[in-house]
Amino acid sequence: MTDLGPLNYFLGVSAKRHSGELFLHQSKYAEDIISRAKMVNCKPALTSMDTKSKLSATSGEKFADPTLYRSLVGALQYLTFTRPDISYAVQQICLYMHDPRTSHFATLKRIIRYIQGTKEFGLRLSPSTVTNLSAYSDADWGGCPDTRRSTSGYCVYLGANLISWSAKRQATLSPSSAEPEYRGVANAVAESCWLRNLLLELHCPISKATVVYCDNVSAIYHLGNPVNHQRTKHIEMDIHFVREKVELGQVHVLHVSTRYQYADIFTKGLSKPLFDDFRSSLSICPPPASTEGVY
Amino acid sequence: MGHRFYVLFLDDFTNFLWTFPIKHKSKVFNIFTKFHTLITTQFNCRIKNLQCDNGREYDNSSFHEFFQKHGMTFRFSCPHTSPQNGKAERKIRTINNTIRTLLLHANIPPSQWHYALSMTTYLHNILPSKSNKFVSPTYSLYLRHPDYNSLKTFGCLCYPHLPSSTTHKLDARSTPCVFLGYPSHHRGFLCLDISSRKIITARHVTFNESIFPLSHDPPTSASSYSFLDSDPSPYMTHFINSPLASNDQTMPPPPSPTTAPTISPMVQQVTTPQPTHQTVAASPVHSPPMRTRAQHGVYKPKAIFDLSITTSVSPIPKSPISALHDKNWKQAMTDEFDALIKNKTWVLVPRPPDVNITRCIWLFKHKYKSNGDLERYKTHLVVNGRSQEVGIDCDETFSPVVKPATIRVVLSIAVSKNWPFHQLDVKNAFLHGHLSETVYMHQPPGFRDRNNPDHVCLLKKSLYGLKQAPRAWYQRLHLFSPPSALLIASPTTLCLYILMVTTQHIFFSMLMISFSLHPHTLFVTLLLLLFGLNSP
């Protein structure tokens, strides 16, 4: 066993302490990915994905080198450790690992071009109170052009620090637009339940209720009002554990306008101003100005 | 400049000849690819077959790949059997005779032999021959008679018309020159200015074919040819500094470049040039005395005889047996083997009947420092997991890993409470795992026990490569309970461990990361009990 001293580099993640803050970044790993894709001199892109509709499984020719595609996608997946801003784009290209097409590879290259411009970016953990959990949950409705399933995403903050996030295509088809939102909130609540337990074990119990922000009024109404509406009969009962949490007062679901719905970044491609705004809200930022000598 | 060899390509059907002077035989492939392109473009047909001598300049991987890629067949003559390449070999004799005659007749310095070669090729291609039914190779190839009007004597006196850009308008408009043949890319004549030793390419030239200006110079001695065997530079530099002479590919002048060549279908089918090559210095008359490197004062230390010299890095060996012949690798393997023995990784047992014995592999790797220097030779003994069988010597292989969110939560709390972080690294972590399954392994190649050569290794601890190695390591850590302290494995979160020491907590998560809260000495001592700490 070797004593490596203060934490500075683990699992390909570099950790820098700077006036109380901790800055986690994977710039070296990002550079490795770029050189593995042979795109060292590529032009940077401003956002990780375009704002057009989602990828289709059968668009374009079959990609000639599926192994390269899979290896790069796997590498990008690990990069999301400190880069939630690319999770949605990576989730999209991950859907087609089994049969990559040229259009999927073009999307992959777009992500790498985005990384090229933001190699140094990382996740900032700043000192804050650790007494409240808040989550943002969002879903699109039937976004996947092949299966018409919805994509939902959430991010969970402990105080001001982003600690958990997800971008995932839902497993079931939803006839109403409120259902994927409802389901998304359930996912976010499930994650925050685990985090509450974890924090309890770490002797930092959360006394306040978890606040979940959702931009669908209908879903919020369903969560707060335990009536089995005619149109929501088909929703599986196991999702309704959220109602119980709401009833117990462990979870508050609040409405937030789409403009401030940070979880949007996990469900669709955004325009540059919105993307930049949400990215900074996820505390993804360039490295602090001076990292040398300050510890 | 500095050409020492030439390569020739001879079309079997038309007897048309292409020659290229070269500096080194290694350039032959380069020349051939260019020649192949030339044929493809000019005659719109493919080279189908190639006959050449058995030289290494042809029989190499570049040529083989090229032939395969273009679907060409090739045939080498058997060793010491030049008659199998007779046509080309005989042509070399003709060419050498002609070059010699041209050079001697005009008393041209030997260093200019490539001009004579170019002229020889030109002459050969326009001369009718008896073997070719009294038509010239040019006619056979282009179906057009060559133009004999511009034929002049090699090395004769000539006066090219110089442009009016001379220094003075009343200066002479010409200067005595020596005719050296036809330029490859111009319709004109190559003339060597006798006074300035420059090559002039001119269209309007007046010839006096009875005078050979260089014949007043002292006659060429045999030793003048020795440049073909030694460093050519002293002979080349003093003579001329010609812009054309630097052209590596002295193409034979096309008989009439103005009209596009037309080829009959018959010629296209059978155009199969035959190359060969020849060292020009092989003329028996002018054969120079043999000179060794030692006579030139060239010495090179022969490291092979000096056993103490180990300047070069030992390459990655192909097999453990060959590695044992290299002392660097042998040392590294011995170190690894001793470490495994010290770790009590296995015990030697007589081979039980009807058990699966897994194979093991030596892996070799160079470890480099950050500045690129070699740091050490690294060897690794790993088990070939593919030789394991599920249910016999491996069972569960799932090994939990830490969730990224767990790391972020712990870091986030630590940042908020301004706790210090500390990082520890368990070296060769997987070697610490205890095996619950019975796994037999062959003795490592090269380290077979002399007294018990037929014994096998019964593994006690896990080795890299075993399917259950990550799980064994996880179990080892998971079941570890330090004395007089309370280590709790988090029930909700895998790979997170919380150490309670009075009122202080130490968290660490697996994957060789640890986060310590208070004087880490306590924590280090704790793990020291388990794994032994190497550095302070």
Description:
The complex is a heterodimer of chains A (295) and B (536). With 295 residues, chain A is α+β, with helices and mostly antiparallel strands. Chain A has eight helices and eleven strands. Chain A has two domains: 22-123, no CATH class; 128-256, Ribonuclease H-like superfamily/Ribonuclease H (Nucleotidyltransferase, domain 5), CATH 3.30.420. Helix content of chain A is 33%, strand content 19%. In chain A, the strands form two sheets. A five-stranded antiparallel sheet of chain A has the order 2-3-4-5-11. A five-stranded mixed sheet of chain A has the order 8-7-6-9-10. In chain A, β3 (13-18) and β4 (21-25) form a beta hairpin. Chain A is globular, with a radius of gyration of 20 Å. Chain B has 536 residues and is α+β, with helices and mostly antiparallel strands. Chain B folds into two domains: 5-282, Nucleotidyltransferase, domain 5, CATH 3.30.420.10; 320-531, no CATH class. In chain B, 25% of the residues lie in helices and 18% in strands. Chain B has helices at 28-43, 61-69, 86-106, 113-126, 137-142, 233-237, 265-270, 320-324, 327-342, 404-416, 469-478, 520-531; strands at 5-11, 17-22, 49-52, 73-76, 157-160, 177-179, 189-193, 199-202, 205-208, 273-279, 346-349, 357-358, 360-368, 374-383, 423-425, 440-441, 456-459, 486-489, 496-501, 504-509. In chain B, the strands form six sheets. Chain B has a five-stranded antiparallel sheet, with no helix packed on it. The longest helix of chain B is centred in the first third of the chain and has 21 residues, at 86-106. Chain B is elongated, with a radius of gyration of 39 Å. The two termini of chain B are 67 Å apart. The interface between A and B is large, with 40 and 44 residues. β1 (2-5) of chain A pairs antiparallel with β15 of chain B, so a sheet runs across the interface.
